[in-house]
Design brief:
With 441 residues, the protein is of the alpha/beta class. The chain is 40% helix and 16% strand. The chain starts with a helix and ends with a helix. Bound molecules: 4'-deoxy-4'-aminopyridoxal-5'-phosphate. It comes from Streptantibioticus cattleyicolor (strain ATCC 35852 / DSM 46488 / JCM 4925 / NBRC 14057 / NRRL 8057) (Streptomyces cattleya).
Protein backbone atom coordinates (compact mmCIF):
# COMPACT_ATOMS: atom_id res chain seq x y z
CA UNK A 1 0.00 0.00 0.00
CA UNK A 2 0.87 3.68 -0.31
CA UNK A 3 1.71 4.13 3.37
CA UNK A 4 4.13 1.19 3.38
CA UNK A 5 5.92 2.58 0.31
CA UNK A 6 6.11 6.06 1.83
CA UNK A 7 7.44 4.60 5.07
CA UNK A 8 10.17 2.51 3.42
CA UNK A 9 11.20 5.43 1.25
CA UNK A 10 11.38 7.80 4.20
CA UNK A 11 13.52 5.29 6.08
CA UNK A 12 15.98 4.63 3.27
CA UNK A 13 16.20 7.74 1.18
CA UNK A 14 18.62 10.56 1.90
CA UNK A 15 17.56 13.35 4.25
CA UNK A 16 18.01 15.66 1.24
CA UNK A 17 14.88 14.35 -0.50
CA UNK A 18 12.67 17.29 -1.34
CA UNK A 19 9.32 16.94 -3.10
CA UNK A 20 8.57 13.62 -1.43
CA UNK A 21 8.50 15.34 1.96
CA UNK A 22 5.81 17.92 1.29
CA UNK A 23 3.90 15.84 -1.28
CA UNK A 24 3.27 12.39 0.21
CA UNK A 25 1.75 10.98 -2.98
CA UNK A 26 2.64 7.61 -4.52
CA UNK A 27 1.87 8.05 -8.23
CA UNK A 28 1.01 4.85 -10.04
CA UNK A 29 -0.63 6.17 -13.20
CA UNK A 30 -0.71 9.51 -14.93
CA UNK A 31 -2.17 11.07 -18.04
CA UNK A 32 -2.20 14.70 -19.09
CA UNK A 33 -2.29 16.76 -15.94
CA UNK A 34 -3.83 14.05 -13.79
CA UNK A 35 -1.87 11.78 -11.47
CA UNK A 36 -3.47 8.80 -9.79
CA UNK A 37 -2.04 7.76 -6.45
CA UNK A 38 -1.65 4.23 -5.07
CA UNK A 39 -4.47 5.11 -2.67
CA UNK A 40 -6.78 5.62 -5.67
CA UNK A 41 -6.91 9.41 -5.23
CA UNK A 42 -6.57 11.66 -8.26
CA UNK A 43 -4.61 14.90 -8.37
CA UNK A 44 -4.28 17.81 -10.76
CA UNK A 45 -0.54 18.16 -11.25
CA UNK A 46 0.63 21.78 -11.27
CA UNK A 47 4.22 20.76 -10.56
CA UNK A 48 4.50 18.64 -13.73
CA UNK A 49 8.06 17.52 -13.16
CA UNK A 50 9.08 21.02 -12.06
CA UNK A 51 7.95 22.39 -15.41
CA UNK A 52 9.36 19.50 -17.45
CA UNK A 53 6.07 18.12 -18.78
CA UNK A 54 5.07 20.58 -21.48
CA UNK A 55 2.58 18.04 -22.84
CA UNK A 56 1.64 16.58 -19.48
CA UNK A 57 2.11 12.98 -18.48
CA UNK A 58 2.26 10.23 -21.10
CA UNK A 59 1.12 12.31 -24.03
CA UNK A 60 0.29 9.97 -26.95
CA UNK A 61 2.78 11.64 -29.33
CA UNK A 62 5.56 11.22 -26.78
CA UNK A 63 4.71 7.59 -26.07
CA UNK A 64 4.49 6.87 -29.78
CA UNK A 65 7.90 8.44 -30.43
CA UNK A 66 9.50 6.36 -27.67
CA UNK A 67 7.82 3.18 -28.90
CA UNK A 68 8.97 3.86 -32.47
CA UNK A 69 12.62 3.90 -31.35
CA UNK A 70 12.15 0.77 -29.22
CA UNK A 71 10.45 -1.10 -32.06
CA UNK A 72 12.97 -0.02 -34.70
CA UNK A 73 15.88 -1.89 -33.18
CA UNK A 74 17.92 1.33 -33.01
CA UNK A 75 20.63 1.33 -30.34
CA UNK A 76 19.62 3.00 -27.08
CA UNK A 77 23.12 4.02 -26.17
CA UNK A 78 25.91 5.06 -28.53
CA UNK A 79 27.65 7.87 -26.61
CA UNK A 80 27.67 10.95 -28.85
CA UNK A 81 27.67 9.18 -32.21
CA UNK A 82 25.49 10.58 -34.98
CA UNK A 83 22.15 8.79 -35.38
CA UNK A 84 18.96 9.53 -37.30
CA UNK A 85 17.26 10.10 -33.93
CA UNK A 86 19.84 12.71 -32.93
CA UNK A 87 19.70 14.33 -36.35
CA UNK A 88 15.93 14.68 -36.09
CA UNK A 89 16.19 16.19 -32.63
CA UNK A 90 18.87 18.71 -33.60
CA UNK A 91 16.90 19.72 -36.68
CA UNK A 92 13.67 20.14 -34.70
CA UNK A 93 15.44 22.16 -32.00
CA UNK A 94 17.21 24.48 -34.43
CA UNK A 95 13.88 25.20 -36.14
CA UNK A 96 12.70 26.74 -32.88
CA UNK A 97 15.78 28.83 -32.00
CA UNK A 98 16.11 32.58 -32.52
CA UNK A 99 17.29 32.91 -36.16
CA UNK A 100 20.68 34.40 -35.20
CA UNK A 101 21.47 31.30 -33.16
CA UNK A 102 19.89 28.84 -35.57
CA UNK A 103 21.84 30.14 -38.56
CA UNK A 104 25.18 30.49 -36.92
CA UNK A 105 24.97 28.32 -33.85
CA UNK A 106 26.51 25.24 -32.34
CA UNK A 107 25.02 22.66 -30.02
CA UNK A 108 26.84 20.85 -27.23
CA UNK A 109 25.00 17.84 -25.88
CA UNK A 110 25.47 17.66 -22.15
CA UNK A 111 23.72 15.64 -19.75
CA UNK A 112 21.68 14.37 -18.45
CA UNK A 113 20.45 17.25 -16.25
CA UNK A 114 20.03 21.01 -16.40
CA UNK A 115 22.87 21.52 -13.96
CA UNK A 116 25.27 19.71 -16.31
CA UNK A 117 24.41 22.10 -19.11
CA UNK A 118 24.93 25.11 -16.84
CA UNK A 119 28.39 23.79 -15.94
CA UNK A 120 29.17 23.33 -19.63
CA UNK A 121 27.95 26.84 -20.52
CA UNK A 122 30.11 28.52 -17.89
CA UNK A 123 33.10 26.38 -18.83
CA UNK A 124 32.56 27.33 -22.48
CA UNK A 125 32.53 31.10 -21.93
CA UNK A 126 35.49 30.86 -19.57
CA UNK A 127 37.44 29.01 -22.22
CA UNK A 128 36.36 31.27 -25.06
CA UNK A 129 37.13 34.54 -23.24
CA UNK A 130 40.14 33.39 -21.24
CA UNK A 131 38.51 35.06 -18.25
CA UNK A 132 37.03 33.47 -15.16
CA UNK A 133 34.58 35.86 -13.48
CA UNK A 134 30.85 35.33 -13.75
CA UNK A 135 27.97 37.71 -13.10
CA UNK A 136 24.84 36.11 -11.70
CA UNK A 137 21.82 37.35 -9.77
CA UNK A 138 20.23 37.28 -6.36
CA UNK A 139 17.53 34.64 -6.13
CA UNK A 140 18.98 32.68 -9.07
CA UNK A 141 18.74 28.92 -9.34
CA UNK A 142 20.94 27.07 -11.79
CA UNK A 143 21.34 23.62 -10.24
CA UNK A 144 23.09 21.74 -7.50
CA UNK A 145 26.59 20.92 -8.77
CA UNK A 146 29.75 22.96 -8.20
CA UNK A 147 29.54 25.98 -10.52
CA UNK A 148 25.76 25.98 -10.94
CA UNK A 149 25.37 25.91 -7.16
CA UNK A 150 27.94 28.66 -6.64
CA UNK A 151 26.11 30.76 -9.25
CA UNK A 152 22.82 30.48 -7.39
CA UNK A 153 21.33 32.98 -5.01
CA UNK A 154 20.91 30.69 -2.01
CA UNK A 155 23.73 31.38 0.42
CA UNK A 156 22.70 28.56 2.75
CA UNK A 157 22.84 26.01 -0.05
CA UNK A 158 26.25 27.29 -1.10
CA UNK A 159 27.60 27.37 2.43
CA UNK A 160 26.44 23.82 3.01
CA UNK A 161 29.00 22.56 0.53
CA UNK A 162 31.62 25.11 1.49
CA UNK A 163 31.16 26.70 -1.89
CA UNK A 164 32.31 30.30 -1.91
CA UNK A 165 33.48 30.99 -5.43
CA UNK A 166 35.11 34.41 -5.40
CA UNK A 167 34.97 34.55 -9.18
CA UNK A 168 31.19 34.86 -9.04
CA UNK A 169 29.56 38.23 -8.43
CA UNK A 170 25.84 38.35 -7.72
CA UNK A 171 23.90 41.42 -8.80
CA UNK A 172 20.36 42.32 -7.71
CA UNK A 173 17.67 40.66 -9.84
CA UNK A 174 14.75 42.99 -10.68
CA UNK A 175 12.30 41.50 -8.20
CA UNK A 176 9.82 44.36 -8.33
CA UNK A 177 7.64 43.25 -5.41
CA UNK A 178 10.64 43.57 -3.09
CA UNK A 179 12.32 46.03 -5.36
CA UNK A 180 16.08 46.34 -4.98
CA UNK A 181 16.10 49.65 -6.90
CA UNK A 182 13.26 51.32 -5.04
CA UNK A 183 11.31 51.45 -8.28
CA UNK A 184 10.25 48.80 -10.77
CA UNK A 185 9.71 48.54 -14.51
CA UNK A 186 11.67 50.65 -16.96
CA UNK A 187 13.07 53.04 -14.38
CA UNK A 188 14.31 50.12 -12.29
CA UNK A 189 15.87 48.60 -15.41
CA UNK A 190 17.69 51.84 -16.07
CA UNK A 191 19.02 52.10 -12.51
CA UNK A 192 20.10 48.48 -12.51
CA UNK A 193 21.96 48.91 -15.80
CA UNK A 194 23.77 52.01 -14.51
CA UNK A 195 24.66 50.25 -11.29
CA UNK A 196 26.04 47.25 -13.18
CA UNK A 197 27.94 49.46 -15.62
CA UNK A 198 29.51 51.35 -12.71
CA UNK A 199 30.72 48.09 -11.22
CA UNK A 200 32.08 46.85 -14.52
CA UNK A 201 33.75 50.07 -15.63
CA UNK A 202 35.36 51.15 -12.37
CA UNK A 203 39.08 50.59 -13.04
CA UNK A 204 39.82 50.06 -9.35
CA UNK A 205 36.55 48.43 -8.42
CA UNK A 206 38.00 44.97 -8.27
CA UNK A 207 35.44 43.52 -10.67
CA UNK A 208 37.60 42.20 -13.53
CA UNK A 209 35.91 41.81 -16.92
CA UNK A 210 33.90 38.64 -16.40
CA UNK A 211 33.72 35.61 -18.69
CA UNK A 212 29.95 35.94 -18.86
CA UNK A 213 26.64 36.97 -17.38
CA UNK A 214 24.24 34.16 -16.48
CA UNK A 215 20.55 34.91 -16.00
CA UNK A 216 17.06 33.44 -15.94
CA UNK A 217 14.52 35.40 -17.99
CA UNK A 218 11.91 34.45 -15.41
CA UNK A 219 13.33 33.15 -12.15
CA UNK A 220 11.61 29.89 -11.30
CA UNK A 221 12.85 28.43 -8.03
CA UNK A 222 13.56 32.02 -6.94
CA UNK A 223 9.81 32.57 -6.69
CA UNK A 224 8.51 33.05 -10.25
CA UNK A 225 9.99 36.47 -10.87
CA UNK A 226 9.73 37.68 -14.47
CA UNK A 227 12.44 40.16 -15.40
CA UNK A 228 11.03 43.25 -17.15
CA UNK A 229 11.76 43.27 -20.89
CA UNK A 230 13.42 46.68 -20.57
CA UNK A 231 15.83 45.27 -18.00
CA UNK A 232 16.70 42.30 -20.20
CA UNK A 233 17.39 44.63 -23.12
CA UNK A 234 19.62 46.79 -20.92
CA UNK A 235 21.57 43.74 -19.74
CA UNK A 236 21.93 42.57 -23.35
CA UNK A 237 23.24 45.96 -24.48
CA UNK A 238 25.59 46.33 -21.55
CA UNK A 239 27.14 42.89 -22.05
CA UNK A 240 27.34 43.31 -25.82
CA UNK A 241 29.11 46.69 -25.49
CA UNK A 242 31.73 45.13 -23.23
CA UNK A 243 32.21 41.85 -25.08
CA UNK A 244 30.73 39.79 -22.25
CA UNK A 245 28.86 36.66 -23.41
CA UNK A 246 25.28 36.55 -22.14
CA UNK A 247 24.03 33.13 -21.06
CA UNK A 248 20.26 32.65 -20.78
CA UNK A 249 19.31 29.71 -18.58
CA UNK A 250 16.04 28.61 -20.21
CA UNK A 251 15.98 25.25 -18.45
CA UNK A 252 12.61 26.03 -16.86
CA UNK A 253 11.26 28.78 -19.12
CA UNK A 254 11.76 27.00 -22.44
CA UNK A 255 9.43 25.19 -24.85
CA UNK A 256 6.42 27.48 -24.62
CA UNK A 257 6.17 27.70 -20.84
CA UNK A 258 6.12 31.51 -20.65
CA UNK A 259 3.88 32.12 -23.66
CA UNK A 260 6.68 32.36 -26.22
CA UNK A 261 8.58 29.33 -27.46
CA UNK A 262 11.69 30.66 -25.69
CA UNK A 263 11.31 33.29 -22.99
CA UNK A 264 13.99 35.52 -24.55
CA UNK A 265 11.59 36.17 -27.44
CA UNK A 266 9.37 38.44 -25.30
CA UNK A 267 12.10 41.07 -25.05
CA UNK A 268 13.67 40.27 -28.41
CA UNK A 269 17.12 39.75 -26.90
CA UNK A 270 19.37 37.11 -28.43
CA UNK A 271 21.75 35.64 -25.90
CA UNK A 272 25.17 34.31 -26.91
CA UNK A 273 24.49 31.06 -25.10
CA UNK A 274 21.25 29.27 -24.18
CA UNK A 275 21.08 26.51 -21.61
CA UNK A 276 18.21 24.09 -22.28
CA UNK A 277 16.87 21.06 -20.46
CA UNK A 278 13.64 19.88 -18.79
CA UNK A 279 10.90 20.04 -21.47
CA UNK A 280 13.30 19.53 -24.41
CA UNK A 281 13.52 15.84 -23.45
CA UNK A 282 9.76 15.29 -23.51
CA UNK A 283 9.89 14.03 -19.87
CA UNK A 284 13.15 12.08 -20.24
CA UNK A 285 16.56 13.46 -19.24
CA UNK A 286 18.22 15.67 -21.83
CA UNK A 287 20.27 18.85 -21.58
CA UNK A 288 22.10 20.92 -24.17
CA UNK A 289 23.86 24.22 -24.64
CA UNK A 290 23.44 26.17 -27.86
CA UNK A 291 25.72 29.08 -28.62
CA UNK A 292 27.20 31.39 -31.20
CA UNK A 293 29.77 29.80 -33.43
CA UNK A 294 32.52 32.28 -32.38
CA UNK A 295 32.47 30.83 -28.89
CA UNK A 296 33.22 27.34 -30.20
CA UNK A 297 36.89 27.45 -29.25
CA UNK A 298 36.87 24.00 -27.67
CA UNK A 299 39.26 21.34 -28.90
CA UNK A 300 37.88 17.85 -29.62
CA UNK A 301 36.94 16.13 -26.39
CA UNK A 302 37.07 19.37 -24.36
CA UNK A 303 33.67 18.55 -22.99
CA UNK A 304 32.67 14.90 -22.80
CA UNK A 305 30.30 12.68 -20.87
CA UNK A 306 28.87 9.18 -21.20
CA UNK A 307 25.21 10.17 -21.26
CA UNK A 308 25.10 12.81 -23.95
CA UNK A 309 23.09 10.81 -26.40
CA UNK A 310 19.96 9.48 -24.76
CA UNK A 311 18.11 8.28 -27.85
CA UNK A 312 14.75 7.87 -26.14
CA UNK A 313 14.95 11.38 -24.68
CA UNK A 314 15.84 12.83 -28.05
CA UNK A 315 12.91 11.07 -29.70
CA UNK A 316 10.51 12.17 -26.96
CA UNK A 317 12.00 15.67 -27.18
CA UNK A 318 11.60 15.87 -30.96
CA UNK A 319 7.94 14.89 -30.64
CA UNK A 320 7.42 17.50 -27.91
CA UNK A 321 9.15 20.35 -29.74
CA UNK A 322 7.19 19.57 -32.91
CA UNK A 323 3.87 19.24 -31.13
CA UNK A 324 4.25 22.50 -29.20
CA UNK A 325 5.29 24.34 -32.34
CA UNK A 326 2.69 22.89 -34.70
CA UNK A 327 -0.16 23.35 -32.23
CA UNK A 328 1.09 26.75 -31.10
CA UNK A 329 0.86 25.67 -27.48
CA UNK A 330 3.01 28.66 -26.45
CA UNK A 331 0.17 30.91 -27.56
CA UNK A 332 -2.26 28.78 -25.61
CA UNK A 333 -0.01 29.10 -22.56
CA UNK A 334 -0.05 32.88 -22.95
CA UNK A 335 -3.84 32.96 -23.23
CA UNK A 336 -4.70 30.59 -20.40
CA UNK A 337 -1.92 31.97 -18.21
CA UNK A 338 -3.21 35.52 -18.63
CA UNK A 339 -6.70 34.40 -17.64
CA UNK A 340 -5.38 32.56 -14.60
CA UNK A 341 -3.37 35.63 -13.55
CA UNK A 342 -6.47 37.82 -13.79
CA UNK A 343 -8.45 35.48 -11.57
CA UNK A 344 -5.58 35.17 -9.13
CA UNK A 345 -5.31 38.95 -8.90
CA UNK A 346 -8.97 38.89 -7.91
CA UNK A 347 -8.02 36.52 -5.11
CA UNK A 348 -5.29 38.89 -4.01
CA UNK A 349 -7.89 41.61 -3.63
CA UNK A 350 -9.96 39.24 -1.49
CA UNK A 351 -7.22 37.72 0.70
CA UNK A 352 -4.80 40.14 2.42
CA UNK A 353 -2.32 37.24 2.78
CA UNK A 354 -1.86 37.16 -1.01
CA UNK A 355 0.84 39.80 -1.34
CA UNK A 356 1.68 39.47 -5.00
CA UNK A 357 0.56 37.50 -8.04
CA UNK A 358 2.93 37.38 -10.99
CA UNK A 359 4.00 35.28 -13.89
CA UNK A 360 4.34 34.84 -17.58
CA UNK A 361 2.33 32.29 -19.53
CA UNK A 362 1.93 29.12 -17.50
CA UNK A 363 4.68 29.98 -15.05
CA UNK A 364 2.76 31.58 -12.23
CA UNK A 365 3.61 32.53 -8.65
CA UNK A 366 1.43 33.57 -5.73
CA UNK A 367 3.47 35.17 -2.97
CA UNK A 368 1.99 34.75 0.48
CA UNK A 369 2.64 37.38 3.12
CA UNK A 370 1.78 38.18 6.70
CA UNK A 371 -0.57 41.20 6.70
CA UNK A 372 -0.49 41.38 10.52
CA UNK A 373 3.16 42.40 10.56
CA UNK A 374 4.65 45.74 9.49
CA UNK A 375 5.74 46.42 5.94
CA UNK A 376 9.47 46.40 5.18
CA UNK A 377 11.43 49.45 4.11
CA UNK A 378 10.40 48.87 0.48
CA UNK A 379 6.73 48.70 1.36
CA UNK A 380 6.31 44.93 1.03
CA UNK A 381 4.74 42.75 3.70
CA UNK A 382 6.91 40.04 5.32
CA UNK A 383 6.95 36.66 3.59
CA UNK A 384 4.77 33.91 5.10
CA UNK A 385 6.50 30.55 4.49
CA UNK A 386 4.47 28.67 7.13
CA UNK A 387 1.25 29.84 5.56
CA UNK A 388 2.55 28.80 2.13
CA UNK A 389 3.32 25.31 3.44
CA UNK A 390 -0.20 25.15 4.89
CA UNK A 391 -1.67 26.20 1.53
CA UNK A 392 0.34 23.47 -0.20
CA UNK A 393 -0.95 20.87 2.27
CA UNK A 394 -4.54 22.09 1.97
CA UNK A 395 -4.25 22.05 -1.82
CA UNK A 396 -3.05 18.44 -1.71
CA UNK A 397 -6.07 17.49 0.39
CA UNK A 398 -8.21 19.00 -2.36
CA UNK A 399 -6.43 17.01 -5.07
CA UNK A 400 -4.08 19.72 -6.28
CA UNK A 401 -0.29 19.38 -6.43
CA UNK A 402 1.60 22.68 -6.21
CA UNK A 403 5.20 23.44 -5.36
CA UNK A 404 6.66 26.26 -3.27
CA UNK A 405 9.57 28.50 -4.15
CA UNK A 406 11.05 31.88 -3.51
CA UNK A 407 13.68 33.31 -1.21
CA UNK A 408 11.61 32.37 1.84
CA UNK A 409 9.66 29.43 0.43
CA UNK A 410 6.57 31.63 0.52
CA UNK A 411 5.60 31.53 -3.15
CA UNK A 412 3.08 28.98 -4.43
CA UNK A 413 4.21 28.02 -7.93
CA UNK A 414 1.91 26.85 -10.71
CA UNK A 415 3.59 25.10 -13.66
CA UNK A 416 0.80 23.11 -15.30
CA UNK A 417 1.28 21.33 -18.62
CA UNK A 418 0.69 23.59 -21.63
CA UNK A 419 -2.13 21.24 -22.58
CA UNK A 420 -4.20 22.29 -19.52
CA UNK A 421 -7.85 22.76 -20.50
CA UNK A 422 -10.00 25.76 -19.53
CA UNK A 423 -11.96 23.53 -17.15
CA UNK A 424 -8.79 22.24 -15.53
CA UNK A 425 -7.51 25.80 -15.12
CA UNK A 426 -10.77 26.73 -13.38
CA UNK A 427 -10.53 23.65 -11.15
CA UNK A 428 -6.94 24.52 -10.20
CA UNK A 429 -7.96 28.03 -9.18
CA UNK A 430 -11.07 26.84 -7.29
CA UNK A 431 -8.98 24.38 -5.30
CA UNK A 432 -6.20 26.87 -4.68
CA UNK A 433 -8.67 29.50 -3.54
CA UNK A 434 -10.28 27.00 -1.12
CA UNK A 435 -6.84 25.97 0.10
CA UNK A 436 -5.88 29.58 0.84
CA UNK A 437 -9.16 30.14 2.70
CA UNK A 438 -8.61 26.97 4.76
CA UNK A 439 -4.95 27.71 5.50
CA UNK A 440 -5.68 31.28 6.56
CA UNK A 441 -8.11 30.14 9.24
N1 LIG B 1 18.32 26.08 -14.18
C1 LIG B 1 17.05 26.38 -13.88
C2 LIG B 1 16.50 27.71 -14.29
C3 LIG B 1 16.25 25.45 -13.20
O1 LIG B 1 14.97 25.78 -12.90
C4 LIG B 1 16.79 24.20 -12.85
C5 LIG B 1 15.97 23.14 -12.15
N2 LIG B 1 14.90 23.56 -11.42
C6 LIG B 1 18.13 23.94 -13.18
C7 LIG B 1 18.85 24.90 -13.86
C8 LIG B 1 18.79 22.65 -12.82
O2 LIG B 1 18.27 21.60 -13.54
P1 LIG B 1 18.40 20.10 -12.99
O3 LIG B 1 17.56 20.02 -11.76
O4 LIG B 1 17.91 19.25 -14.09
O5 LIG B 1 19.84 19.90 -12.69
Amino acid sequence: GADAILGRQAARESAARTYARSLPVVPVRARGMTIEGADGRRYLDCLAGAGTLALGHNHPVVLEAIRAVLDSGAPLHVLDLATPVKDAFTTALFETLPPELAENGRIQFCGPAGTDAVEAAVKLVRHATGRSGLLTFTGAYHGMTAVSLAAGGDTTARAAVGEADARITRLPYPYDYRCPFGVGGDRGAELSARWTATLLDDPKGGLQPPAGMLLEVVQGEGGVVPAPDAWLRRMRQLTKDRGIPLIADEVQTGVGRTGAFWAVEHSGIVPDVMVLSKAIGGSLPLAVVVYREELDTWHPGAHAGTFRGNQLAMAAGTATLRYVRENRLHERAARIGARMLTRLRGLAAHYPCVGDVRGRGLMIGVELVDPARPRDEYGALPAAPRLAAAVQAQALRRGLIVELGGRHGSVVRLLPPLTITDEQAEAVLDRLSDAIAAAER
